[in-house]
Structure formats: C-alpha cells, structure tokens
C-alpha cells in the first residue's frame, strides 16, 4: 500500500465527520490525478462501513465502486468468460443504474454503505443526471465518495450537494521519497515535470519520458525549423503509441507549458503559454472519449507547443 504524506488533512476532516452527529452524505475528493484519491476513498469507505464485532471481508459487500464497465455487450461477454475485454471510455447511465439497484436493499453487514464513483468527472450526461437523483434523496446509511480530477466538469447541482475535500500536490522531497519506496530512481526531471503528482512522476520514469520532455522544452523555448522537432517528437513517442502513453505525453506537455508560463517575464509570451496550456488540457480531456489517432494527436500537440514559442511571434519592421 502506498504511503500518501499529503492525506493528513483529508483524514482529519473525514474522522472528525465520522465522529460527529451528522455525517455529510456526499463527498467530492478533488485534486489533480496521481495524488492517491482512489486509495483514500477505499480506505475511508472501509472505516465508514466497519462495525464493532462484525468481521469485515476484504471484498466488502457494502462498498460499491462505480467506474468504467465493458464497452458493449460483446465486450461484456468476453469479461464474463474471463477473456481480455475493452472498457468504455465513459461511465454510463447503466453503470450508475446498477449501483442504484443495490440501494433498494439494506446494507449487508452493518448500517452503512459506501458508494465510490471514480473518476466522477468521466460520467456522461445521462449518468450524472441519474446520480443526482440519489444525491438529492440518499437512502439512510448511504454515503457517496466522488473521486474527481476536474471538479468543474461535474454538474453544479452535484457539486452543491457534496462536501469538497481537496488533496494538495506533493512536494519534490515527498515525490523523491515515494519514488524510492516504489523502487524507482528519483529522476529530478521526472519530479520537476510531475508538478506534485506521484502518478505522473511514476509514469515519467516507467515510460522513459525524459527525452520527450527535452524535445517539448526545446519546442516551447524556440519554435522549430520546418517540422524537424515534431518529427523527433513522433519518433520518441513511437509509431504504435497506445492511449495510456499518449495521455502521459499530454500530461507532460501541460506540466512543462505551465512551468514555462510561471517562469516567463514576457506578458505576451505568458499569455500564449496559458492559452496553449488550456488547449492541451481540453485535448487531454477529450482524447479518452474521442476516436484515438496518435498521429492526429501528435500533430495537434506539436502545433500548440510551437505556437507558444518565442519564435512564433510575428515580426514587425
């Protein structure tokens, strides 16, 4: 189990609420990806449903996780047969509906039930509207923990019915320690690019993103002559990059663009970098649910990076 040094305040809030007279029924666990929010949700849920004198199984019947399910009926049959299967790109109405069917019965082992939705910001519109009904009239003893990386993508009515618990980014020292505990060399480049996310730092090291980080920084610093740097970026990422690798590259590009914006003394350049960061964030949010084409994504990423570089400024005679 990963030790998360950034969870101390979250645990204080949770345990104070547990010991109080009125426990809020809805919780938003908010923060960037890679901060251990899912681990916290699972551990907090176990504390919530535990009851003195009743053995608590590892696979607890009163902890239900709503997440991506099989893509379609064909993939579901593969899952049932124990074969590899493809997941849906979003959490759908039927996923939330399956959870709600359980709410018609009482908890199995005690008086409380925990529902974890992860990641809640990947619910489609129908699923979000369906969940809202349960948040508006929660059954007695039912508590919701919504893990979210981008709370703004949730319906305002869902946010308003939940207590927000924010998870802070990790310090560079904390990241270095966690990487060592995971058996990974604490690469300073990985730590800098991760911007406080252990998940990002781990992916940086595991996917050998250091050369990609260097070419991205070159593109941000000086544009490119022709398409040479974009070609090198494509070569480093690889011709058969999967969705996970492309998502890691998008996160890396966002982090490096944000760092360049913070360090720039030129207001016009800073504005371009901020615009590029916003566009990269939108691209990262859309990529999992769009038709996946690594070539098109690479072209868009390269264009945004080059467009934010100093050399892209128009010349004035």
Automatic annotation (TrEMBL):
It comes from the Bacteria. One of its GO terms (biological process) is DNA-templated DNA replication. It holds the Pfam family DNA_pol3_delta2. This is DNA polymerase III delta prime subunit.
